[in-house]
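Extended Data, panel c. Modelled sequence:
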Amino acid sequence: MIITSRDSVTGVLALGAIIILQAYLHGWWPLLSDVRWTLLAVFSLSVLAVATGYLYDEEPSFRWSLAAAAYLALCSMLAIAGLLSRQPSVVMGIVAATVVFWLASVGVHLFAARQYQRHAPQ
């Protein structure tokens, strides 16, 4: 695999989650004054990032299927915990998980592209 436009879109979605978190923490946008709205916005962007980056992959491997399922389960549990506790640290956890998942996805795509170039017939 190589870096595709899906990686760019998931990168923009991860950046959007970071910007929403910063807007909440610094009070830039009145709509995000409640942690629940911020949590729902960040969770929505996280799910969209997985849907864009993973679900539309032509050849998802079993390991990536497990990783995506674990990521979605983690984000779902954090979202439920955040809605119940109203703690901003939960939103930070979802954003961190989103960025780590995106970086892992891009890293795997770069590694696979290098492996392909090394073993490609010349």
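The longest helix spans residues 88-119. This feature is highlighted in the accompanying rendering.
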